[in-house]
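Hi C.,

You asked whether I'd gotten around to modeling the 311-residue construct. I have! Everything is below, sequence then structure, no commentary in between.
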Amino acid sequence: MSHLSTVDFATTPEGVAFYGAYDLVLEKWPVDVTSVDLETQHGTTRVNICGPADAPPLVLLPGGGATSTVWFQNVAALADRYRVFAVDLIGDAGRSVAGDKDPRTVDDLLSWLDDVTTAAGLAAFSLVGHSYGAMIALAYALREPDRVQNLVLLDPSSCFAGMRAQYLARAIPLLLRPTEKRRGDFIRWETNGQHIDEDWLDLDARGAEHFPKSRTVVPKRPKRNALDALAVETTVILAEGSKVHDSRRLATVTESIPLLRTIIVDGATHHTMPMSPAAELNCALLDGLEPRKQEAGPRDGHPVTEILPPK
């Protein structure tokens, strides 16, 4: 992993190649995109924006290392109904640039997201996060429920249960000694060899080895009483084939949380999300973002819904 600053990294051969790969994946977006850099107390944040200016706002947080470009299979469906703000996480691979006060605590991280959405002019918005982005999204919704209208978590890591030892045994050495080959091999292992867009995989692998990341700030798993008090309608979309956790067991855990419902997407793994299976994921995303009709009486949890891929 490089010890250069992000600014210096951009002028290196590895940086030029990384940002070229970033732009190549962004070109896959099938909608018009406006890229802006928003100033926060923790640095400059790149946000890729699409969709009608007067549509309800939707903020997307990617998984660690995935960058905001990863939503290329989702943005057409989402931008048909929403003004989409896809964010590069501060201190992580992408075009955001951490400043002198890069986030060092969870409070810093949530304040950064607060700054980004405020700078974007968003008073309230729907929020979608995948993996590490889901951890940030849930922590933010617990802290700022008045700003989050709907919350969708894609195969969230360590939000409701711990990660499998088998996954950690492969992930931790990769974090300690990342290389492009190791990252690519890891993704292929977790996805069971499913097709992954090669341009995105190249971007992800380059970022893993070369991008000068800050120390990752990880929100703690919320306590059960905090989850029971969650005031935001939340949909958890689990990957049936995820190697991060046992999705069916996790669904059982989440069913009793009052404002939370769970969808299991068959054919998906942790790292095929949010790219594939695209049709099923987009259906689940749009369903999760739709306000629910108020039900009479107390909620006793929500049934697990399985969305199967077309035969």
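If it helps when you're writing up: The longest strand covers residues 43-50.

Thanks,
B.
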